[in-house]
């Protein structure tokens, strides 16, 4: 049986959300649809569910679709994101693509139209897994099992049990290997706060980074680099 597509629908129109969710979940092949009413809820749902694809309205209260898109793209360049808006001005479209949107659809739309857009986007990802089902990440001689919070290096004969935050930080860096991840994004994903400048959290993050760098000392091709004023990067040479 083919796996259902896990879709996050971020839309503040309750009626449209109901119609789209029910229609998509009733299609042959089917979807698992997670819903959110604004960008803030959408960001939370993204972190909890790690969807295969995201459909988001642009104009929403609390946090709009472009702001949510920008936050997600700080840590995830792979999940397809489709923007939907009734406005559709050239500036909106341009800004959306600049921030990392994969495609754009003008409202009003019907669920069958979204289905066609979704399959077109996912076809571009063919040959790549929709998401990391095993929650395991490989870099150099290391294997990170994020679900069980272990870091293994068979070559060096080491198997390190990580703390929850160590595993979370390293997972985020591994998901974006050889790309810079902002400190604020790391804090947001691991401390449930937006305040990256909190002194105690900042010092705590630095302490975790010292430990993680020590765990990675057995393979000189792997390291965690600090990009001053920007963020951190897991480098595999």
Largest sheet: 5 strands, parallel
- H/E series, N to C? EHEHEHEHEHEEEEHEHHEE
Strand order of the largest sheet: 2-1-3-4-5
Structural class: alpha/beta
Low-pLDDT stretches: none
Question: What is the molecular shape?
Answer: elongated
Q: What number is the mean pLDDT? A: 86
Intertermini distance:
39 Å
- Based on DSSP secondary structure assignment, what is the total number of beta strands? 12
Which range does the strand content fall in? 15-25%
Helical content band:
40-55%
Q: Give the helix tally.
A: 8
For the CA atoms, what is the radius of gyration? 19 Å
Task: Report on the architecture of this protein.
This protein has 237 residues and is an alpha/beta fold. The chain has 8 helices and 12 strands. The chain has helices at residues 14-26, 39-49, 65-73, 90-99, 111-124, 164-175, 183-191, 199-215; strands at 5-10, 31-36, 53-57, 81-85, 103-106, 136-139, 142-145, 150-153, 158-161, 181-182, 222-227, 231-236. The strands form 3 sheets. A 5-stranded parallel beta sheet has the order 2-1-3-4-5, with helices on both faces. Strands 6-7-8-9 form a 4-stranded antiparallel beta sheet, covered by helices on one side. A 3-stranded antiparallel beta sheet has the order 10-12-11. It is elongated, with a radius of gyration of 19 Å. It starts with a strand and ends with a strand.
Briefly characterize the structure.
With 237 residues, the chain is of the alpha/beta class.
List the helices and strands and how they pair.
Blueprint: E1 5-10, H1 14-26, E2 31-36, H2 39-49, E3 53-57, H3 65-73, E4 81-85, H4 90-99, E5 103-106, H5 111-124, E6 136-139, E7 142-145, E8 150-153, E9 158-161, H6 164-175, E10 181-182, H7 183-191, H8 199-215, E11 222-227, E12 231-236
Helix pairs in contact: 2-3, 6-7, 6-8
């Amino acid at each position: 049986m083919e796996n259902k597509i896990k879709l996050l629908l971020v839309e503040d129109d309750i009626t449209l959300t109901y119609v789209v969710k029910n229609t998509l979940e009733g299609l042959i092949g089917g979807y698992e649809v997670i819903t959110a009413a604004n960008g803030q809820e959408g960001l939370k749902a993204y972190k909890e569910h790690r969807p295969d694809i995201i459909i988001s309205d642009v104009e929403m209260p609390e946090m709009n679709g472009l702001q949510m898109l920008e936050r997600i793209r700080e840590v995830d360049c792979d999940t397809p994101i489709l923007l939907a808006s009734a406005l559709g001005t050239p500036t909106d479209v341009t800004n959306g693509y600049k921030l990392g949107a994969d495609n754009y659809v003008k409202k009003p739309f019907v669920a069958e139209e979204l289905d066609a857009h979704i399959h077109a986007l996912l076809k571009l990802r063919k040959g790549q897994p929709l998401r990391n089902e095993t929650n395991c990440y490989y870099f150099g001689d290391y294997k990170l099992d994020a679900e069980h919070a272990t870091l293994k290096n068979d070559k060096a004969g080491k198997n390190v049990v990580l703390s929850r935050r160590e595993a979370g930080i390293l997972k985020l860096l591994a998901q974006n290997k050889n790309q810079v991840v902002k400190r604020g994004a790391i804090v947001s994903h691991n401390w449930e706060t937006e305040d990256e400048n909190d002194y105690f959290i900042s010092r705590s993050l630095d302490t975790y980074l010292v430990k993680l760098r020590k765990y990675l000392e057995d393979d000189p091709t792997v390291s965690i680099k600090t990009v001053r004023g920007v963020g951190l990067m897991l480098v595999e040479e």
